[in-house]
Amino acid sequence: MPNLDWLPRTILAAAKPRDLRSGEVLFRQGDAASAIFRVEEGRIRMVRYTVDDHVAVLQTVGKGEMLAEAAFFSKTYHCDAIAAVASRVRVYPKAVVLRALKSDSGVALSFISSLTRQVQDLRTRLEQRNIRSARERVTQFLRLSADTRDGSVHIHGTLKELAGEMGLSHEALYRTLAALESEHTIARKKDRIVLVGAKFV
Amino acid sequence: MPNLDWLPRTILAAAKPRDLRSGEVLFRQGDAASAIFRVEEGRIRMVRYTVDDHVAVLQTVGKGEMLAEAAFFSKTYHCDAIAAVASRVRVYPKAVVLRALKSDSGVALSFISSLTRQVQDLRTRLEQRNIRSARERVTQFLRLSADTRDGSVHIHGTLKELAGEMGLSHEALYRTLAALESEHTIARKKDRIVLVGAKFV
DNA sequence: CGAGTGATTGACTTAGATCAATGACCGTGG
DNA sequence: CCACGGTCATTGATCTAAGTCAATCACTCG
Question: How far is the CA of B14 from the C1' of C25 (A)?
Fold first, then answer.
């Protein structure tokens, strides 16, 4: 869950937390962009109002993720940020962070590193979504997530959450795992799934 | 299609092109990471071999996109890059680019800007993939892509390509558009779709 | 002028969403 | 210490929307 590890400790330490009730607004489209945030707890929804007067969710930002990075390069926020559930964010004043990025190329480089990793990860997830079949989607996920050493995948959080991240209903995931297990393609342990037939190093 | 607009002109100009036949290998997992690339024409597939001896496509990089950005922070490439069709890439030596990033905070900032935009875009696309119904997926896409001024969406390339990007079969997209049109939710012109009922500014 | 490709529509099939019910587990408050 | 409410995990039954196969038409290009 890092994701802001690239910031100097002094800035990290100085960032104030802010608590939000469910439904509370963090900022609105058009507000002066004064800070970026990191979600410590809960979920924030980035929402935009469309030309035909509907609401569109641009993204849902979860625990550990950064939000409003684009505020760096904009005078104002370009969408609303609203807490989907009771949440806590940490506030990083834009000016302070920007100064650090400008003055210290090491900080900038670390940030770039973090961003490129994110881009890769997101592209991979998008690619996975192109796989229609639940079965293939799940096995590809497991293959890419498997530890090279022992072919096992550690499951963070609940299977239900995982299903959501993979774009499957939780029932579909349960069923698929059950099927794969019964064919001995995988073995399941507590918090861990092992790819049978993985070549160990 | 820009995406490397953040690099100094001198570097852009110095980058050599390289042509690849369909199926040709640009680099292999484990090769020393000596350059990053931009796809000028065609499509490059990033492929990894999994622990259980299968092939997994990590991502498909299309025209205008950058590839192997992560090579900046790694001694070696961590997957294979293979041309899916005859392609042309431009080669940016890692050392040169890295030097520019380190020495010029303006360059670094521009790169960061480009990356944050990419991250936002990818997250939005992922969010869209969570919408199961073709109809909703298409309308959300149109709403978010619509020009604020006149509520119209310019269609780049073919509808077939668009269907692929949205994760729909082309038939499903055609049908959905036909349905939306017959209900007067949208109007179609050459290369352009207009959201009826969009509030014009 | 034919080959190749996109756009479009029809018919059919199926995989996955949805609705439902049950058991296991956990924390908690009386 | 135990009963109760809540959530996850699991499995069954059902339904439907989207994928797949297929045929046609319109265009473009050499």
Answer: 64
